[in-house]
Amino acid sequence: MPEGHLIHHFADRIRADLGGTEIRATSPQGKFDAGALDGRRLLDVRAAGKHLFYDVEDAPAVHVHLGMRGLFLHHPDPTTPARTGTRLRLANDDAAWDLIAPSACDLLDAAEVARILAKLGPDPLGPDDPAAAVTALRSFRGPVGAALLDQSVWAGVGNAWRAELLFLAHLHPRTPCADLSADQATALWELTRRLMALGRDAGQVVSDPTDPDERWVYRRATCRRCGTAVATAAVAGRTAHWCPAEQDEQVHALPTR
DNA sequence: GTGGCATGGACAT
DNA sequence: TGTCCCTGCCACA
Question: What is the mean pLDDT of residues A108-112?
Answer without folding.
Answer: 92
